[in-house]
Design goal:
3 domains, SpoIID/LytB_N, four-stranded antiparallel β-sheet, single chain, Sporulation stage II protein D amidase enhancer LytB N-terminal domain-containing protein, 16 helices, alpha+beta, coiled coil, three-stranded antiparallel β-sheet
Length: about 575
């Protein structure tokens, strides 16, 4: 093969090698990883400084670490590739040296032909041919010079790449070490967060049985109806009441128990928006179908003996007769389904109070009678099972599953936002919730005989509730002493007043609050529950889990004042 062609092949190989090497991951990608690692450190520092549960931040940190590990894996693969190509480059250098050696020898031989004697001889033989040969060899020398320059530049480039590779290896090792350290620290943080959650759950669970009874008694003292069958709703808008002191704070709850099944005021709102009774029922119970049962089948009614199914239904008093017909029809189907499910198709007896559904006997008549007749025998079925169609007066814009509330899930109950569109704030919820017309949609529950019979609390009273929570979290053994001050202690021990609670906190190195200036909540706009609550006062800022705060608020707040659901807001007046 001609040597000139060999050189051309060599230059082609060099060009290919340079092109392939250009696609490798270079130092800028490593800089990106180092930047992400720096961002990770900053995020981790913010997480450590946070006082609220770290789970959300830790999830983000874990994701970042996973991305860094993936990048490291890619770089390691590229390092292996670079080392391989370096070896190939060294082989090319050896070949280049051989080719250049041959070229040098060729040039020497060619140049030696042009001594004076040979030049005269050649000129004598064929002047044109001689000049042409000399020109060719001169051009070859120039090409060889270009080749030598390119090879030198290539060698220089290869040496630079070697240095870059060595630098990347060192930096990669540093990044790997940092990543491993962060992974270990992250795992420690996750463990700590889960331990905190476990401790939190344990502390909440440590509320004594007697304290739990106190909470039940406080709830019962509110006389909140389970459904509209118990009569008109009497929820006072405390925002219109002046307690006579300022600042004042009150906990306003969205809805009243139990928020499972059909929202009666929600059915009103949906009917007004044009939904028919099946639309309404499908909104509140998922996966259902509609079937018809014999409207004359017998059902046992407590205190009334046996009644035909739809005859019994005519005496149900669960929804005002003035409401839209489609809402009444939805109520009729729900009440009929509930009765059959509760009695196991009439085999057992159903009570007549709101503990079941309110029955007053006779025929309520009017639009209710029409709703019963228009839905004659109609019930809801889920996977072959008659739906036990729970319902309640006011959900506060959100429904929950039976498992959320009672611990036993029925597949047809659903967790959802009961609004006409997305919500991004409490004001949005008040505008878009289907049950917004209920007087109990947003209300502060409970009152004291003084302070305009309102649920407003003084700043130092809220501070006391916060201090109780801080003490209980720090030392769960103190909880039996932390019930409300104005009632006998359910555990039969002394109840610590505000001063004693502060003293106990100080003894444990915790600064107590004397006054509260602000309270704000972070809530789940899709699920309808408070995630966390932040309290600001003279001792700084403290954050608590939403359920945690509600439990201790209800335990310590005076009289029967309490938060009665998962979604609430703290207002300042």
């Amino acid at each position: 093969m001609p040597k000139l062609k060999i050189v051309s092949i060599f230059l082609f190989l060099v060009s290919c090698f340079l092109f392939l090497n250009a696609r490798l991951v270079m130092a800028d990608e490593l800089e990106e990883i180092e930047k992400k690692l720096s961002d990770l450190k900053r995020a981790l520092q913010m997480s450590i400084a946070a006082t609220s549960p770290l789970e959300k931040n830790l999830t983000t940190l874990q994701k970042n670490l996973s991305e860094i590990q993936s990048k490291i894996t890619i770089i390691e693969a590229d390092v292996v590739l670079k080392e391989k190509e370096v070896l190939e480059g060294e082989k090319l250098l050896i070949l280049a040296q051989e080719l250049l050696g041959q070229k040098v020898r060729q040039i020497y031989i060619s140049s030696s032909q042009f001594n004076s004697t040979k030049v005269l001889l050649l000129l004598g033989k064929n002047l044109n041919l001689t000049l042409r040969q000399f020109g060719y060899q001169k051009k070859a020398i120039e090409n060889d010079r270009d080749t030598i320059v390119k090879v030198v530049l290539y060698i220089k480039d290869l040496e630079n790449k070697k240095k870059t590779l060595e630098s990347e290896k060192v930096r990669l090792a540093s990044v790997k070490k940092e990543t491993d350290n962060q992974a270990q620290f992250l795992q420690k943080e996750i463990t700590g967060a889960k331990k905190y959650q476990g401790t939190l759950s344990s502390q909440i669970a440590q509320l004594s049985a007697r304290q739990q009874q106190l909470l039940v008694q406080k709830l019962e003292s509110l006389h909140l109806p389970t459904s509209l069958g118990a009569g008109p709703l009497f929820c006072t808008d405390d925002r219109k009441l002046d307690p006579g002191f300022s600042p004042s704070f009150a906990a306003f709850t969205y809805g009243i128990p139990h928020r499972v099944g059909m929202n009666q005021y929600g059915a009103l709102g949906r009917a007004k928006s044009g939904q028919n009774h099946k639309d309404i029922l499908n909104a509140y119970y998922q996966g259902i179908s509609f079937e018809t049962r014999d409207s004359n089948m017998k059902i046992k009614v407590q205190g009334y003996g046996e009644k035909n199914l739809d005859e019994y239904l005519l005496g149900i008093y669960e929804m005002p007769d003035s409401w839209p017909l489609e809402a009444l029809k939805a109520q009729a189907v729900a009440a009929r389904s509930y009765a059959l499910a509760y009695t196991n198709n009439g085999q057992s007896e159903i009570c007549t109070t709101q503990a079941c559904q309110v029955y007053k006997g006779g025929n309520k008549g009017g639009n209710w009678e029409k709703a019963v007749n228009d839905t004659k025998g109609e019930i809801m079925v889920y996977q072959g099972e008659i739906v036990k169609a729970w319902y309640a007066s006011t959900f506060g814009g959100f429904s929950f599953t039976s498992g959320d509330v009672w611990g036993s899930d029925r597949g047809y109950t659903r967790r959802m936002r009961d609004t006409s569109g997305d919500v991004g704030s409490f004001s949005d919820l008040s505008e878009k919730a289907y049950d917004r017309e209920s007087p109990c949609f947003y209300a502060a529950q409970g009152f004291r005989s003084e302070y305009a019979k309102s649920a407003w609390l003084k700043s130092d009273e809220v501070a006391d509730i916060v201090n109780v929570l801080l003490l209980a979290k720090n030392d769960g053994t103190t909880q039996s002493h932390l019930s409300q001050i104005d009632k006998p202690n359910p555990d039969g021990v002394d109840t610590w007043d505000a001063g004693r609670v502060k003293s106990e906190l100080k003894n444990r190195g915790i600064t107590p609050y004397n006054s509260i200036s602000q309270a704000s909540v972070d809530w789940d706009k899709g699920g309808g529950k408070v995630n966390s609550i932040s309290i600001q006062g003279d001792a700084g800022t403290s954050s608590f889990d939403g359920t945690e705060f509600r439990n201790f608020f209800n335990l310590r707040a005076p009289a029967n004042i309490q938060i009665v659901g998962p979604l609430y807001n703290i207002e300042r007046k």
